[in-house]
Design brief:
The complex is a heterodimer of chains A (159) and B (498). Chain A is mainly α and 159 residues long. Chain A has two domains: 72 residues; 77 residues, no CATH class. Chain A has six helices and no strands. Chain B is mostly helical and 498 residues long. The longest helix of chain B is centred in the N-terminal third of the chain and has 35 residues. Chain B is globular. In chain B, a hairpin with a 6-residue loop joins strand 1 and strand 2. Chain B has one domain. Helices cover 75% and strands 1% of the residues of chain B. Chain B is built from 23 helices and two strands. The chains are: A mainly alpha (159), B mainly alpha (498). At the A-B interface, helix 1, helix 2, helix 4, helix 5 and helix 6 of A face helix 8, helix 10, helix 19, helix 20 and helix 21 of B.
């Protein structure tokens, strides 16, 4: 049976993480001080265990796949990359826009894009719902709790 | 008796107007997020952590706890009316309860689970009331090596016992431990794994990880994998009240479920999954109507629902008395305590006895509130299930990003949130459990502190963990827990070969 490529990649990722932590721990002192153990001790232990776990995962992946994971069932649910891209784009756009453009508009865009990823194409409705929700949160935080979410370009229009 | 005095003192705290209000808010929020798919108690408490700067400790903790056990009530409504279980602990309810709903018995199914949850929650709270002082006694005798050993045991049971695979559970746990390492070491001031990024010096916030894994990861998974899956919402037809026969058939399953669930919650094994399965198996054995099982047997709803509620209350025992969280939500509750500079554990019962007992007393109050919220008012929550999926998930993400951005007003955290969400998607896709990550990242730094304290007592000698009796015993149990499944499968293999 062919080894499932995805699982091998995941195991390799775990191995790489373990190696990275272990390597990083060598730049930290492990001994000395009043406490006898330095800040490098725990990372070294964690790194070593992650490396070992990665090894076991790799072995499982190469010998019939991860135990208890039904790869065939997964294959029946193919990744919907379009939907994935809509959600991803929404969050990344939010991160880029929240400060320059403001909380309300960034949230509105996120709302519309996530709704679109679930196949909702009622753009005006979603935009309206998103705007109402975001304005409500903005009002509660900025006028109610005294926290400041960025107003952005709407600043001149807001009280 | 001392317990009574303290409980009375606790009720004086819990029954103030203000705390009753926080309790009600918590129970309502808990029920709502329990009912709604795509968002759970862990995310909700994480997103509400910032209120700890505005609200006093008892009010906030009472509300957070209400969210925690309220979600258990709400979760059963969804599993009964919708054929997709919300979380692993309600798989059984989803099976048996949904069958009842399909046969027009949604009402009694909802009733037996709400009343069962109430009975289980109340009995478990009584258990907590009397068990907690005993565990505190024991905990006071523990030193750093014992605590370290206890945490190692909790790590193992949380990650290895639950889920389909010990290996993947441990991988998730150690991922959490690795996340917990990031930031300034609080004993020496040494920066670890911050890569010169200033935002990482403070460590990775639990809010980002919990919301990323549970809200963003789930949304990504549902959007890209389950978009096509059809859900069917069952209507509540007829009376929601149970008939005399339903009462008779539910009563003992409730009691048995409670007795199974509570101990599972209290030992640091976490998770309500195993006790629900156990309870279901027992009810199936004891019933006079075995032919109904799988077709909507009321015992199969009553028992497991009681078990999962009792175990969630049981989780409070190790959390409050020893500071050991055994589920993702309990771990976030622990970090809520930390926001106030409080560390749950035996000392908290002495230094903040009014707070702890007020919290325990609020469980009694909360369970009564939840019974009312979930039985006569169930129709209200069902309306939440009618929110269309696109707008529901869009709304969840608006709240998620707001909470994570608002925490430090930093867009960096939003990108980190997305990265954790991608990780959550990968973990879900490849069958890695996510709860151990959260437990690991919160309990990890505490375990490291105890380890380093132990080693400074022993002047660097690791033998301290085995020369102390309790610590050696706990570590011994850990080894058994880890190796038992492995050895058992080897033995079975040998038998099969013969």
């Amino acid at each position: 049976m062919k080894a499932p490529g995805g699982q091998v990649a995941v195991a390799a990722g775990v191995l790489a993480l373990g190696a990275g932590i272990l390597l990083g721990s060598f730049y930290l002192p492990t001994g000395g001080g009043y406490a006898q153990v330095g800040p490098g001790m725990a990372p070294r232990g964690v790194g070593a265990v992650v490396l070992v776990l990665g090894g076991f995962l790799l072995r499982e992946a190469l010998t019939g796949g991860f135990r208890g994971v039904d790869e065939d069932a997964e294959a029946h649910l193919p990744m919907n990359w379009t939907a994935f891209a809509w959600v991803s784009g929404g969050i990344v756009a939010y991160g880029l826009l929240v400060e320059p453009v403001g909380f309300i508009i960034a949230s509105l865009i996120l709302f519309v894009m996530v709704a679109r990823s679930f196949n909702s194409r009622r753009w005006p409705l979603n935009a309206a719902v998103g705007a109402v929700l975001a304005s409500f949160i903005f009002a509660v935080f900025n006028y109610g709790l005294g926290l400041t979410l960025p107003a952005g370009i709407l600043k001149p229009l807001l009280p | 008796m001392e317990v009574w005095e303290q409980l009375v003192q606790g009720f004086q705290v819990a029954l103030t107007m203000q705390n009753l209000m926080w309790c009600l808010v918590g129970c309502m929020l808990g029920t709502a997020v329990g009912v709604l798919p795509g968002v759970g108690p862990a995310v909700t408490v994480a997103l509400l952590l910032p209120i700890t700067t505005k609200v006093d400790a008892s009010g906030a903790l009472i509300m957070f706890a209400g969210i925690y056990y309220g979600a258990m009530y709400g979760g059963s409504t969804t599993s009964i009316l919708l054929n997709t279980p919300g979380e692993s602990a309600t798989i059984i309810t989803a099976m048996e309860g949904n069958q009842m709903a399909k046969r027009g018995r949604a009402g009694p199914a909802l009733a037996t689970s709400a009343i069962g949850s109430f009975i289980a929650g109340t009995i478990a709270t009584i258990g907590l009331t009397f068990l907690a002082p005993l565990v505190v006694e024991l905990g006071l005798k523990f030193g750093p090596p014992e605590y370290f050993a206890l945490m190692v045991l909790a790590f193992t049971t949380v990650s290895a016992v639950l889920g389909q695979s010990t290996l993947r559970g441990l991988a998730s746990l150690f991922l959490g431990l690795a996340i917990g390492l990031v930031g300034i070491d609080n004993q020496t001031g040494q920066a670890r794994f911050a890569f010169g990024v200033p935002q990482l010096l403070d460590g990775i916030e639990v809010v980002t990880v919990a919301v990323g894994l549970f809200a963003v990861g789930e949304t990504l998974y549902f959007a890209s994998k389950l978009n096509q899956v059809q859900e069917k919402l069952e209507a509540i037809r007829g009376s929601i009240w149970m008939k005399a026969e339903d009462w008779k058939r539910s009563f003992w399953p409730w009691i048995r479920g409670t007795l199974i669930g509570f101990p599972f919650g209290t030992i640091p094994a976490g998770g309500a999954e195993i006790p629900t399965f156990l309870s279901y198996a027992i009810e199936k054995k004891l019933t006079k109507h075995p032919e109904q099982f799988g077709q909507g047997a009321i015992e199969g709803v009553a028992g497991p629902e009681a078990a999962n509620n009792a175990s969630s209350t049981g989780t409070m025992v190790p959390l409050l008395t020893l500071g050991l969280p055994t589920s993702a939500t309990a771990a976030i509750l622990l970090s809520a305590f930390q926001q106030y500079g409080l560390q749950p554990g035996p000392l908290l019962f002495e230094s903040n006895s009014a707070l702890v007992w007020g919290l325990i007393a609020s469980f009694y109050v909360g369970n009564v509130m939840l019974l009312v919220l979930n039985l006569p008012l169930v129709g209200l929550w069902v309306k939440l299930l009618q929110i269309p999926r696109p707008q529901l998930y869009a709304g969840i993400l608006v709240f998620a990003t707001m909470g994570v951005y608002g925490m430090r007003q930093s867009p960096f955290d939003v990108f980190l949130l997305y990265a954790v969400g991608l990780l959550g998607l990968l973990m879900r896709r490849y069958g890695f459990p996510t709860a151990p990550v959260v437990v690991g990242m919160i309990l990890g730094p505490l375990a490291e502190e105890q380890m380093r304290r132990s080693l400074s007592i022993s002047q660097g000698s690791w033998s301290i963990f085995v020369t102390h009796g309790i610590s050696a015993a706990l570590l011994g149990i850990t080894v058994i827990v880890l190796l038992a499944p492995f050895v058992a499968s080897k033995l079975r293999g040998r038998k099969a070969a013969r």
